[in-house]
Amino acid sequence: MDMSDLISILNQAAHDPPKDAESRKQLHDAARKLMFAAEGHHELMHRVLFSQIPLTVSKVAADIDVFRVLSSQPGEQHTTEKLAQATSADGILLLRILRGLAAHGLIGETSDGSWYANAATEVFATEMIKDGIDQNQMTLGPCHQALPTFLRETKYRNPTNNTHIPFNVAFNTCEPVFTWLQHHPANLKAMIGTMPAQRSGQANWFAEPTIFNPADFTLSQSDMEAGRVLMVDVGGGGGQQSLALRTARPQLGGKVLVQDLPWVVSSLDSAQAQRLKDHEIEVQTADFTQPQAVEGAKVYYMRNILHDWPDAECLVILRHLRQAMSDDSVVVIDEMVVRKGASSHKQVNYDICMMAVLASMERTEEQWGVLLGEAGLRVREAREYDAGSGDSVVFAAKA
Fold first, then answer.
1. How many helices (H) and strands (E) does the chain have?
2. Do residues 253 and 390 share a domain?
3. For the residues of 235-273, what is the DSSP string, one character each?
4. Catalytic residue annotation
5. Residue 133 and residue 104 share a domain
6. Going by DSSP bridges, is the β-strand pair 391-398/330-338 parallel, antiparallel, or unpaired?
7. How do residues 242-261 score in pLDDT, each as one tens digit?
8. What CATH number has the domain bearing residue 42?
9. How does pLDDT run across 206-226, given as a tens digit for each residue?
């Protein structure tokens, strides 16, 4: 195959990408490798040095509703003048923003200079992505900017104190981020709103027969008669994962509890509260840095909790759970497991973000083993359910 044939195949794939998720992932990964291999030093320079530009133009576009306007009329082509009227933006300024969006694949551009919604536009028109843009612009971005200077001043020591990190420098505060957010409602709204986006479109491991073992979530008849709790969703927020369990495995008996801080529980809207009630899911106020009040549950489940905390705080959380566990209880940790020798840009992005904002990290399986061991637990097994991100469920039993 000569180069012209390869280029033709790649262009065809760009216009008609595969429909199934696994083929899309394989094509995406191969295309990234090809991009890195083929780019010259000028392309490399622009990719890295101007990496903030896509977020910047996305923020402006979201603020003036470009994504919503375009996506509300799928298949329609819009002139710059028409969009200027719809958004009340200056025409010359809008043209510059539109070109930036098109260059980064976020909207489509025709040969005559009109604009239309592509697949990315539809995604960026959603409220949760708009919240994600706000979170990165308002909260995460300043922390990332502060990271190099902070590391230089701390002699390049790995951050482990969540009140002495780039976040504290960026916002001139001594508070940890979760305390600070409670006093900054716009930042808090953006954080809460973007949470669903982090797992949007991802496989639900509760429904995967190769991942989910019913034996881990099944109570005996005597357990049922004694009123044993099936699952405690520790730090479960709005209970999305508890709902996913009830939906995917409706035959499972036993009480399911969602625990979180009072301000999180009080922020649940009435519709979500009713959904939880309809699925017989109880909500409790609790602080996982304090002793666990529910003893002997079959499962203590945490999704994306421990990656928010340095090891010392994780040990406090885990030891409280171990103290509450029965001999056959299991702690299920639903998080990334970082692979050795195969760095993923998704895992790296989250890991550096955790460092700058929370003094925490994404962990390898070996790091999970050490952490759990120090808490008096052991890794029984780890099962990956999303190869794209490395998201896995780590099952921990008493050591």
1. 20, 10
2. yes
3. T-TTTHHHHHHHHH-TT--SEEEEEE-HHHHHT--HHHH
4. 307
5. no
6. antiparallel
7. 999 999 999 999 999 999 99
8. 1.10.10.10
9. 998 889 999 999 999 999 999
Q: Assess contact for 389 and 198: CB atoms under 8 A.
A: no
Nearest to 176 by CA among 268, 288, 265, 308: 308
- Report which secondary-structure segment, H or E, holds 231: strand 229-234
pLDDT band (50, 70, 90) for residue 345:
confident
**107/16: higher pLDDT:** 107
Same domain, yes or no, for 266 and 376? Answer: yes
- The range of the structural domain enclosing residue 392 comes to 205-398
Neighbours of 389 (CB within 10 A): 18
**Domain contains 58:** yes
- The verdict on 152 and 232 lying in the same domain is no
Better pLDDT: 95 or 18: 95
Q: What is the pLDDT of residue 125?
A: 96
DSSP string across 308-369: GS-HHHHHHHHHHHHHH--TT-EEEEEEEEEPTT---HHHHHHHHHHHHHHS---EEHHHHH
pLDDT digits (tens, 9 = 90+) for 111-137: 999 999 999 999 999 999 999 999 999
Count of domains for the chain: 3
Q: Hey, which residues does 257 pair with through a beta bridge? A: 232, 282
The sign one gets for the Cα dihedral 40, 41, 43, 47 is positive
- In sequence order, the β-bridge partners of residue 397 are 378
pLDDT at 199: 66
| Confidence band, pLDDT 50/70/90 cuts, at residue 200 | low
289, 266 Cβ separation under 8 angstroms: no
396 has pLDDT over 80:
yes
11, part of any domain: no
Domain identity same for 364 and 266: yes
Between CA 396 and CA 319 the distance in angstroms is 12
Residue at 15 is within a domain = no
pTM for the whole structure: 0.89
Same domain, 194 and 213: no
* Mean pLDDT, residues 357-376: 96
Round to whole Å and give the CA distance between 368 and 327.
Answer: 21
